[in-house]
């Protein structure tokens, strides 16, 4: 099996004032928290958003593992809907000492390029900053961070930087070369 170099960039905000929100897109775009843990829905979002950009680390998760992860206090999934259709999501995971990671963020390919991504990222980062208000007993957020890599969409890094995230680490590692998993062959134009 061949390997490819993959660059991973880690970015952060250290104050709510770091957030530079994008304007909301035109049309009927709503962002709603998926409050009921649903492994089926979360796996749908994960596979649909990441299928063409090599998201593979959760594809072998069992139903029970998804359920356990989603039921952890403070884990939140915020879903963007365009005219009632899921368009993308942002997943938040609280960590120690007031840190919140944006674990996953992205749009289903059919909804990319419509200015939904900047709006969804802005909204997700704002929800990371106020996460403790929804989860009594959690430490107020002091830092929001995420990572992106050279396998992600070509506009990912620019979107993060335009929203006020600052680079704090870069790593290059060899990873096995794997085919994009889909969601199914031929689903999106090349």
TrEMBL record:
InterPro entries reported for this sequence: Acyl_CoA_acyltransferase, GNAT_dom
Gene3D superfamilies linked: 3.40.630.30
SUPFAM superfamilies membership: Acyl-CoA N-acyltransferases (Nat)
CDD domains named among the record's database cross-references: NAT_SF (cd04301)
N-acetyltransferase domain segment(s): 29-190
UniProt name for this protein: GNAT family N-acetyltransferase
Annotated source species: Streptomyces musisoli
């Amino acid at each position: 099996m061949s390997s490819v170099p993959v660059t991973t960039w880690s970015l952060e905000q250290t104050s709510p004032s770091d957030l530079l929100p994008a304007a909301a897109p035109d049309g009927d775009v709503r962002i709603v928290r998926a409050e009921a843990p649903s492994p089926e829905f979360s796996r749908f979002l994960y596979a649909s958003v990441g299928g063409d950009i090599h998201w593979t680390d959760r594809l072998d998760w069992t139903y029970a593992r998804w359920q356990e992860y989603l039921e952890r206090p403070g884990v939140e999934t915020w879903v963007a809907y365009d005219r009632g259709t899921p368009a993308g999501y942002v997943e938040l995971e609280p960590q120690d000492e007031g840190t919140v990671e944006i674990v996953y963020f992205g749009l289903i390919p059919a909804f990319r390029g419509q200015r939904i991504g900047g709006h969804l990222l802005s909204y997700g980062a704002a929800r990371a900053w106020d996460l403790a208000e929804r989860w009594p007993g959690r430490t107020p957020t002091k830092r929001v961070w995420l990572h992106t890599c050279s396998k992600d969409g070509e506009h990912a890094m620019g979107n993060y930087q335009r929203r006020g995230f600052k680079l704090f680490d870069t790593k290059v590692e060899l990873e096995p070369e794997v085919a994009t998993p889909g969601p199914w062959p031929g689903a999106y134009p090349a």
